[in-house]
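Hi support team,

I'm filing this because I wasn't sure whether my run with zinc ion finished correctly. The job status page said complete, but I'd like someone to confirm that the output block is well-formed before I use it downstream. Pasting the exact inputs I used:
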Amino acid sequence: MRAALVILCLLGVSSPLQPAQPDWKNLEPETLRYFQDLVRFDTSDPPGHEAPAAEYLKRVLEQAGISVEVFALEPGRPNVVARLKGSGRKRPLLIMGHTDVVNVDPKKWTYPPFSATRNGGYVYGRGAVDDKDNVTAALVTMLTLKRLNVPLDRDVIFLAESGEEGTTRVGIKYMVEEHWPAIDAEYCLAEGGNVTRVDGKVKFGSVQTLEKIPHAIELTARGPAGHGSVPLRSNAVAHLAAAVAKVAAWKPPLRLNETTRAYFKRLAAISTPAEARRYLDVIGADPKRTAAADEYLLEHEPRHASMLRTSVSPNIIQGGYRVNVIPSEAKATLDVRMHPDEDHDRFLQEIRKVIDDPAVEAAFVARDIRPGTASASLETVGFKAVEAALIREYEATVLPTMSTGATDMSYLRGKGMQCYGIGPAIDVEDGPKGFGAHSDQERILEAELHRFVRFQYELVLDVARPK
Ligand SMILES: [Zn+2]
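And here is everything the job wrote out:
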């Protein structure tokens, strides 16, 4: 039996236990071609217009003999689903990426934003790290599994969804509510994680297991209108300004969960002694040390401070129209990123208490809201496989992460799917230089794109092949 397996492997024929190895060197130019082609579709959302990218994916998958289904709530905004059948012994694995991108200001770009220009080891373009990297990796994984005829114990489902950047009703929301059987799976892999490099060296790998939920609260201050020459203590602008200042200075209480506790603990293990002290203090039981560490993070590491609480950022303020008129109304909008288990009504009450002014009303207003969910488990076969793959490919310490921003995974987690956010290696220095996701410009290291494809393929193989 063993001898037969060896012979099969030598012949390059896959056996259930030892699938043939992909020819990674030859896959690189092909990967790059798909990636550049995808970046070159201008799928800025709004308006989205993902159809050409979706048609492209459909064509590439079908040419490889993989059947494809397309689901669209609105014309021009389709979602693409493809499936490789497994034996059915285990429930499916979903691998996904969104085809839309955030808008661009072309003047800010060295190379045109949809040119996918290669220079100095990078590929430049909107979507380079959000999220055409994940779409490409999932695509190449599907093609490779198909070509090598890899036996699978579970279906592997590919989803390229539209509308992630603010119009989920045409994308993941629509798929979950109207076409659930097409994407129902035990696990999903999507954006939201990455591998962080410092000075060109891998520091740690983040796996997103939870995310904060975006909400919006509007403050409205009202008072009598009047002549600007007669100042009033009831001036709506003055009341609104005071309310905004109070909310901005407020420190909502700290909250921890399985993901953030593990995150800070593991981060402490790879940090300098001073940093480690703070990370352990902030999750520790000594209220004085916790408060001091929190204060430091609020000042110097705002992303970490946000992970530790439901956060509030006053981002829009409107009031007044003439210099000589006291306006009767002024409004501010707060970007509220809630911990998934936060009690909405209680939080609103807290905000009202902080403002403590009967002239200022606070209320939730409409936003592209995603469901709040429990954390993906750190104890599943899926998480352990992600962790093992990160260690194998990157030799990275693995940090489970709650992202402060939102992804489409919250809809899937809301249905009970165990979702893990992954992503390519990114230089920590690149974001502040203006090359990160949603930045003025966006780029990816070519070598890291290829490495991410290998990582994702090996990970999918590990989760889906017979054992
Ligand atoms: Zn994204």
